UniProtKB/TrEMBL annotation:
Residues 714-753 are annotated as: Disordered. GO terms for molecular function: exoribonuclease II activity; RNA binding. This is Ribonuclease R. It is found in: Cytoplasm. Keywords: Cytoplasm, Exonuclease, Hydrolase, Nuclease, RNA-binding. It comes from Palleronia pelagia. InterPro entries: CSD2, NA-bd_OB-fold, RNase_II/R, RNase_II/R_CS, RNase_II/RNase_R, RNase_R, RNR_Ribonuclease, S1_domain. SUPFAM superfamilies: Nucleic acid-binding proteins (SSF50249). GO terms for cellular component: cytosol. Residues 725-753 have a biased composition (Basic residues). Belongs to the RNR ribonuclease family. RNase R subfamily. It comes from the Bacteria.
Length: 753
C-alpha cells in the first residue's frame, strides 16, 4: 500500500510540474494505484474546498497561479507600445496577473480584445507577473456589455443597459467577481453561444451604483472606452513644462486681442482682433487676427503627452464633466490664453476686402497677451447697448470693429452658400447634486456666429497655406451625400409638400432652398433633421476631398489644439513649413498620417456617441417622474417595428411600438415611410404632429416608450378587428392593405400637411 502524500507534498508537486496536474499524473508521481486512488481523490477535494487548488476539467492547479498554456485576452498596447494580456480565467484571491506578450517577427498583429493562446513563463517584475509567447491567435474578441447585476441563488443575472439589448445574461457563482446586487458591472460572454436558456457571462469589473448622481456620464465613458485618467508620466511631463518666452517669436503683446468663450469655460485656446484696413488700395476692407494657443511648443512629437493626446484624439464633453485631451496643467493653464498673462501662440493675420473675401494672409509664431476674457453673453449685451463695466472700455476699439468685420464675412458666406441647418442644441442643466434641473435649448447669439466665422476663415487660411507649400497635413473632409441618402431626403421633402430638384450636380444652395421652403412651417424641424441625416460623416484625411457642408475646397482644423489632435498636427505642419523650430512634423508622423487620421476620426465618433447616450439617459431621468403624462411631438422616424417621436418640450426621442398602435395590423411602406392600418386604412408617416402618453422612462438605458393617442389632432381609431388581439390579420386583409398602401403612397406624399 502506497503512502498517501500530504497536502503540502501535492501542492509542491503541482507547483514544480505545472504541465502534469491531472489526477492520474499525481497518482503516477507518488506510486498510488488501485483503491488508494480513492484516498488521493479525497485529499484533492479537501485542497479544492480549502481554496488551495482549483479544478479545471480533469486537472488541478494552484488558484493563485496560471497554467503554462492559457487562453488570454489582449488588453492592448500601453503607451510605450508593449502588448499586454489578461487571463480569461482567474480564481485566485490576489488580483489577476498582468501578462507581457513577447512577439516574434512572424506573429500576426494583435489588438485589444483579441483572444490568444499563450505559453506562459512566471517572472518577477514590478508591472507584470508573466511573459507570454504566442502559440496561436484564436477567434475575435468576445461580446461585452454593461448591465445591472441582480443577485441570484446560483450567482446572478445581468440586465443590460443598452437600449438595443433586451436579453439578460446568466452569471455563475464563480464568475460574479464579487458583484453586489444592483451594481453596474462590465461582463463578457462565457462559453459557447447556446440555443437554449440565457447566454452565460462572467463579470469583468464592478463600476458602482448606477443611480448615483453624476454616474450617467461615467457609464458612457466606460461603455465607450474613453480614457479618463492620465498616466503619472503624462501628468508629470505636463507639470514640468515652463512658460514659453519671446525667443524666436514675433511680439504680439501690443495687439488688443481678446478671448470670447462660454461663461463657464476653463480653457481658452483662441483670441481675436479686427480693425479697418489702412491700405488705401483696400479702402473699406478689414484686417483680422486669430491667435491660437501654441500647444505644439509643450506637446512634442513622440513624448508621453503626445502619445496620450493621440490616443484620446479629442476632449469629450458631458453635462457634468469634461474628459480633456491634455492634463489640466496645460489645458487650463500654460496653453490657455488667460487675461493679462504672456502666452505662446500661433497667429494668422488675414486681410478681407469690403465684401468679406480673403485677399491675403500671413502666419506667425508669436507671444501675445489677452486684454480680456469675455463671455458670449457679455459681448452680445455690449453690442445690444448694455455693456458691462468690463466691456464698455473695449466697445469702440475692439468690439465694434469685430462686428464690422463679421458683417463683411457674412456677406461672403451668403455668396458661398454653406449648408444652413437650423437645429436647436439641447442643454442639460444639472443641480448641485448632479440631478437634472431643467432641459433648455442653447441660445444662439451673433457673438457665437462671429467667432465661428473668424475660426472658419482661419481654418481655410491654414489649409491654403499648407497646400501652397505642399506640406503634409490632415484636412477636414466632408463629402457630398450618397445618392440613396439624397433620394431618401427627396422622398421626405415630397411627402411634406416641398421639392428638391433632380438631375443636377448637387450644391449646398439646392439644400438651402429646401430648408428655406420649410422655414416656419410645421415641417421645419423635420426637414432640417432629414437633411442632417442625409449628410455623410465628416472625417480627417491626408488627402483633400473638400468640405461639402461649408462649400469650401480647402479646409483644415487649426483653431482648437487644446481639445483636438488634428489641430496639433496642422500646427506642427505650419512649424515645419516655415522652419520655426524642431517641434514640427517629423518623418515618422508624416508616414503615419493615414493611421492618425483613422484613429482620431474614430475617437471623434466615439465621443459623439458617448455624449448622445449621456444626453438620452439624462433626459430619461428627467422624464421618469412624468410617466403617464401626455405630451406633444412630431414623428421623426418610421420603421416596421414602430414610430420614433421627437418630443416638443425636451427634444427627446421616444419609441411607439407598432404592436401598441390600435388593434389592427399595420403595413410598413419603406419608400413612403408610412405605416398603414389593414382595417381602418389609417396612414401614419413622417412629420405628422402627434399627442402621446409617456408609458415608460428608463434612466439606466435612456429609453423612452410612448403610447400614441392622436395624429394631427385626430384620436387613433381602434381598428375593425373587434375583439381580435393585435397580430397578423388574415391573408386577405393583409394583401388588401398592402395593395392600398402601394396605391396611395404617391397621394400621401402630395397631401400630407
Amino acid at each position: 500500500m502506497a503512502k498517501i502524500p500530504s497536502k503540502q507534498q501535492i501542492l509542491d508537486w503541482i507547483s514544480e510540474n505545472p504541465t502534469q496536474t491531472a489526477k492520474r499524473d499525481i497518482a503516477r508521481a507518488f506510486g498510488i494505484k488501485g483503491p488508494d486512488r480513492i484516498d488521493l481523490k479525497r485529499v484533492l477535494k479537501a485542497l479544492e474546498a480549502e481554496g488551495n487548488l482549483t479544478k479545471r476539467g480533469k486537472t488541478y492547479r494552484d488558484p493563485d497561479s496560471l497554467p503554462p498554456v492559457s487562453v488570454c485576452e489582449v488588453t492592448g498596447p500601453d503607451r510605450d507600445g508593449d502588448i499586454f494580456a489578461r487571463p480569461l480565467e482567474w480564481h485566485g484571491e490576489t488580483p489577476e496577473p498582468r501578462i507581457l506578450v513577447i512577439p516574434r517577427a512572424a506573429d500576426p498583429a494583435l489588438g485589444p480584445g483579441d483572444r490568444v493562446l499563450l505559453r506562459l513563463t512566471a517572472v518577477t517584475d514590478e508591472d507584470h507577473g508573466y511573459e507570454g509567447r504566442l502559440i496561436r491567435k484564436l477567434n475575435s474578441s468576445a461580446m461585452r456589455m454593461l448591465g445591472i447585476f441582480r443577485e441570484g441563488p446560483e450567482g446572478g443575472r445581468i440586465v443590460p443597459i443598452d437600449k438595443g439589448q433586451d436579453k439578460e445574461w446568466q452569471v455563475g457563482s464563480r464568475d460574479t467577481h464579487g458583484a453586489q446586487d444592483g451594481e453596474l458591472v462590465e461582463a463578457e460572454r462565457a462559453g459557447p453561444k447556446g440555443r437554449m436558456g440565457l447566454p452565460r457571462a462572467r463579470v469583468l469589473s464592478r463600476l458602482g451604483d448606477p443611480t448615483a448622481p453624476k454616474a450617467v456620464s461615467l457609464i458612457a465613458i466606460h461603455q465607450h472606452g474613453i480614457p479618463d485618467q492620465f498616466p503619472d508620466e503624462v501628468v508629470a511631463e505636463a507639470e514640468a513644462a515652463e512658460p514659453a518666452g519671446l525667443d524666436g517669436r514675433e511680439d504680439l503683446r501690443e495687439l488688443p486681442l481678446i478671448t470670447i468663450d462660454p461663461a463657464d469655460a476653463r480653457d481658452r485656446d483662441d483670441a481675436v482682433l479686427a480693425a479697418p484696413d489702412t491700405d488705401p488700395a483696400n479702402e473699406g476692407g478689414h484686417v483680422i487676427w486669430v491667435a491660437i494657443a501654441d500647444v505644439a511648443h509643450y506637446v512634442r512629437p513622440g513624448s508621453a503627452l503626445d502619445r496620450e493626446a493621440r490616443l484620446r484624439g479629442n476632449s469629450s464633453y458631458f453635462p457634468d464633466r469634461v474628459v480633456p485631451m491634455l492634463p489640466e496643467a496645460l489645458s487650463g493653464d500654460l496653453c490657455s490664453l488667460h487675461e493679462d498673462v504672456d502666452r505662446a501662440c500661433m497667429a494668422v493675420r488675414i486681410t478681407l476686402d469690403p465684401e468679406g473675401n480673403k485677399i491675403a494672409h500671413r502666419f506667425t509664431r508669436g507671444l501675445m497677451r489677452s486684454r480680456a476674457s469675455l463671455s458670449y453673453q457679455q459681448v452680445q449685451a455690449g453690442r445690444d447697448g448694455d455693456p458691462s463695466e468690463t466691456v464698455a472700455p473695449l466697445m469702440e476699439r475692439v468690439i465694434d470693429p469685430l462686428y464690422a468685420a463679421y458683417a463683411a464675412l457674412r456677406r461672403a458666406r451668403s455668396r458661398r452658400q454653406p449648408l444652413e441647418l437650423d437645429l436647436p442644441e439641447r442643454k442639460i442643466v444639472l443641480s448641485e447634486d448632479g440631478r437634472v434641473a431643467s432641459v433648455d435649448f442653447a441660445e444662439r447669439l451673433d457673438a457665437h456666429r462671429l467667432i465661428e466665422e473668424f475660426m472658419v476663415t482661419a481654418n481655410v487660411a491654414a489649409a491654403e497655406e499648407l497646400s501652397k507649400r505642399r506640406s503634409p497635413l490632415l484636412y477636414r473632409v466632408h463629402e457630398e451625400p450618397a445618392p440613396e441618402k439624397l433620394e431618401a431626403l427627396r422622398e421626405v421633402a415630397q411627402a411634406s409638400g416641398f421639392a428638391l430638384a433632380k438631375g443636377q450636380v448637387l450644391q449646398t444652395a439646392h439644400l438651402n432652398r429646401l430648408l428655406s421652403q420649410a422655414q416656419d412651417s410645421d415641417f421645419d424641424e423635420l426637414i432640417n433633421l432629414s437633411t442632417l441625416r442625409a449628410m455623410t460623416q465628416a472625417y480627417y484625411s491626408p488627402q483633400n476631398f473638400g468640405h461639402f457642408g461649408l462649400a469650401l475646397k480647402n479646409y483644415a482644423h487649426f483653431t482648437s489644439p487644446i481639445r483636438r489632435y488634428a489641430d496639433l498636427i496642422v500646427h506642427r505642419a505650419l512649424i515645419s513649413a516655415h522652419g520655426w523650430g524642431d517641434d514640427g512634423l517629423d518623418p515618422a508622423q508624416i508616414e503615419a498620417l493615414d493611421q492618425t487620421a483613422e484613429q482620431i476620426s474614430g475617437t471623434e465618433r466615439r465621443s459623439m456617441v458617448a455624449e448622445r447616450d449621456t444626453t438620452d439617459r439624462y433626459l430619461a431621468a428627467y422624464l421618469s417622474e412624468r410617466v403617464g403624462s401626455e405630451m406633444t411631438g412630431r414623428i421623426s422616424g418610421v420603421q416596421k417595428f414602430g414610430l420614433f417621436v421627437k418630443l416638443d418640450e425636451t427634444g427627446a426621442d421616444g419609441l411607439v411600438p407598432v404592436r401598441s398602435i390600435g388593434r389592427e395590423f399595420f403595413v410598413f411602406d419603406p419608400e413612403a415611410q408610412t405605416l398603414m392600418g389593414a382595417d381602418s386604412g389609417t396612414t401614419i408617416g413622417l412629420g405628422q404632429r402627434v399627442t402621446v402618453r409617456l408609458a415608460e422612462a428608463v434612466p439606466v438605458t435612456g429609453g423612452l416608450m410612448l403610447e400614441l393617442l392622436e395624429v394631427e389632432g385626430d384620436a387613433m381609431p381602434r381598428g375593425g378587428g373587434g375583439s381580435r388581439k393585435p397580430g397578423k390579420p388574415p391573408k386577405r386583409a393583409r394583401a388588401k392593405a398592402q395593395k392600398k398602401s402601394a396605391k396611395t403612397a404617391r397621394k400621401v406624399k402630395r397631401t400630407r400637411r
